[in-house]
């Protein structure tokens, strides 16, 4: 009889792996590699590398699947970005970015370590139980081949698990009646994730958009006058994460409690290493 998973075990495992996955978005290698293929705008580069697995999609698809970006910002770069570089060219550039970024942050010795190979094997095994239904970003990435190098295979599996959880999370936010800006405001109010300054600097929303969303949340009794969550707001965010956990449980149940525990341990060690190596700019996460 299999051992039941501890509460939030899958969430904690995916969070550690996502820290490793997201390094390439903040890497100086991203700008260099994408500029080399004709994409010299950092926002266009982000939209390109994350959506390329879906093919040369339009702005509507990117807005729908990414969810928390202002559509006008997306449309400024998509689909024009595909005239500069095809999705296959972008995917190849992204692979080079991931390789150089992880080697710089972790070191060649760690990249070639048995622990990275073990983490890749465990993460890929978990991803076997991901499902494509109603999960477009996951489904697109699931069509891509698994890289041979263990550190790239680990990154690929982390991407699958990230997008699988993310796709489910969007469905939960929709059911909770939170629009994209309200979701961002209420999430930053938890003190987790990106800061309001970082969000406003990257998502295309204005301060007026932010303030209007905060006002709507206050009207619903979810946000207090100082911008913090009320007890009802905190309960809603907790319910959202719990429901996201429920929709995302299959990969971690498939891996099993011992496998999830080991993968989380390995993932946290790698995540701590990349953070210590300066993978993320100061002030990107937290309440500031």
Task: Report on the architecture of this protein.
The chain is an all-alpha fold. The protein has one domain. The chain contains 17 helices and no strands. Helix 11 (150-175) packs across helix 15. The radius of gyration is 19 Å and the shape is globular.
List keywords for this structure.
single chain, 288 residues, mainly alpha, 17 helices, 67% helix, 0% strand, globular, HTH_67
C-alpha-based Rg, rounded: 19 Å
Order of helices and strands: HHHHHHHHHHHHHHHHH
Give the CA-CA distance, first to last residue. 47 Å
Percent strand: under 5%
Main β-sheet description: none
Number of helices: 17
Query: What overall geometry do the principal axes of the alpha carbons give?
Result: globular
Give me the secondary-structure topology.
Layout: H1 9-21, H2 28-36, H3 42-51, H4 59-66, H5 71-77, H6 81-84, H7 87-106, H8 108-111, H9 114-127, H10 136-142, H11 150-175, H12 180-188, H13 196-202, H14 207-219, H15 231-247, H16 250-255, H17 257-276
Helix pairs in contact: 1-11, 1-17, 2-7, 4-5, 9-11, 9-17, 10-11, 11-15, 12-14
Quick summary:
InterPro entries: HTH_67. The model has no long low-confidence stretch (mean pLDDT 96). This protein is mainly alpha-helical.
